[in-house]
Amino acid sequence: MKRIGSYMLFLLILLSLHARAKTAEDYYVSAFNEMSDMLAGRDSLSIKIAVFLAEWAYYEGKLDYKTDFCDEIDRIARFIHSIYAVNKLEKYKTGMQMAISSYILSPYSGNNYTPYTYDFDPISMDEESWERQFVSRTLKTHKGQCRSLPWMYKILANELNAEAALAHAPRHCYIMYKDEDNITLEEWINLELTTNQMQPKWWIKEDFEISDSALIVGTYMTPLTDIQTVACQMADLAFGYREKFKRYDEFTYYCASRSLEFYPMNPNAWIIRGKSLERIIQECLTRTGGIVDDYVAYLIRQMDETKLCYDKTYMTEETEEIRERRKQEAIEAQKYIKEKIQSR
Q1: CA–CA separation, 329 and 344 (whole Å)
Q2: Average pLDDT by consecutive 10-residue portion of the chain (344 residues)?
Q3: Residue 16: its pLDDT value, please?
Q4: According to DSSP H, which parts of 66-113 are helical?
Q5: Where do the DSSP E strands lie in the chain?
Q6: Is the pTM of this model over 0.90?
Q7: In a domain, 81, yes or no
Q8: Residue 119 has what pLDDT?
Q9: Structural domain that includes position 302
């Protein structure tokens, strides 16, 4: 394990005070340090490793980087190379992106004739277990959703030197890459893996009810750089911690704050930071008997700053109508894909 900085040493001491699942928490501290080193330039930036670390921490180390992650990714990458070569996709500037999409969405011997499809069970996002968004699970089951499928695509694109980026819509993730072959009328391809569609920009904006302000500041529909992608994964590390331990605390605060240094237009990270500060302030007031001392006053100022920065992202609040519409679109798309496969 890498050397831990002074503020992380303080965090470790705080975590040690929690009697429950102390060892499990230590995995999260290790994952935080590894990602933080990547973001600071002390270690090589790797989206694949960052994704693995978040899942590894949740499983308390019961996930092997080589056998549960790299071996299958390497095998898939080799097969995608064969799709690229056999179909002579080198004549296209975006041929490798096409090959990746084809592998994920079409039956091949290399995916056991089982394309990667949307995981509909359970359908309610409120009931959805955290593991359902894990890339390691999608690699094994060939089922995923609006997070695991595009993150798997992004990892494969990096392995195959294909330019592609993650992009966000409200509570949603998809792939963007430049349309260098002029397949569409737009500059960028917006690839929606849950519905197997290339969607125009105007359609995404209307479907998710995204405001012009959110587009202008880059909250949604903006290709993320690799460093922003790792920062996003650090925010997901905090979400995983919250799911596992059912609390916000100093750890989730540090995760969100570190993530926001490199990706400040992530509204989810501001939400984590705000909820973490709220919990810390409540605990401090309990200890002081409700007295607002200098430290509590400092935390309240941090809370005010967090609220202001969150508002500047112009986040779209997901309604039940939007959620139901997205579900039906995914169902119809998977039905179409299944019928198309059976007709071959």
Answers
A1: 23
A2: 48 51 84 97 97 97 95 98 97 98 95 88 56 94 93 98 97 96 95 90 93 96 98 97 96 97 97 97 94 95 97 86 70 64 59
A3: 52
A4: 71-86, 95-105
A5: 117-118, 143-144, 165-169, 172-178, 188-192, 197-198
A6: no
A7: yes
A8: 80
A9: 47-342
Q: Return d(Cα 140, Cα 340) in angstroms, integer.
A: 24
Which residues 6+ apart lie within 8 Å of 179 measured at CB?
94, 186, 187, 188, 189
Q: Which pLDDT score is estimated for 4?
A: 47
28 located within any domain: no
Give the per-residue pLDDT at 333.
Answer: 65
**Taking Cα atoms as reference points, which of 33, 67, 62 lies closest to residue 50?**
33
- Helix/strand/coil (H, E, C) string of 204-219? HHHHCCCCHHHHHHCC
Nearest one of 121, 137, 142 to 55, comparing CA atoms: 137
Which letter does DSSP use for residue 315 in this model? P
Q: Is 133 helix (H, G, I), strand (E, B) or coil?
A: helix
Query: 304 near 273, Cβ under 8 Å?
Result: no
Phi, psi of 172 (to 5 degrees): -155, 155
| 8-state DSSP, 3 | P
pLDDT for 1? 41
Strand pairing partners for 189?
177
Number of domains in the chain: 1
Measured CA distances, 100 to 103, 117, 171, 193 (Å): 5, 14, 24, 11
Distance, CA of 198 to chain centre: 20
- Is 212 within a domain? yes
CA 277 to chain centre: 23
**Residue (of 154, 152, 150, 160) closest to 199 by Cα position:** 150
pLDDT at residue 300 in the model = 96
Buried b (16+ CB within 10 A) or exposed e, 311-333: ebbbbbebeeebbeebbebbeeb
Task: Give me the DSSP letters along 135-188.
Answer: HHHHHHHSEE-TTHHHHHHHHHHHHTT---EEEEETTEEEEEEE-TT--SSSSE
Alpha carbons 303 and 269: distance in angstroms, whole number:
13
Cα separation, 205 vs 185, in Å, equals: 16
15 part of a folded domain:
no
| Angle of helix 250-262 versus helix 6-16 axis, rounded to 10 | 150
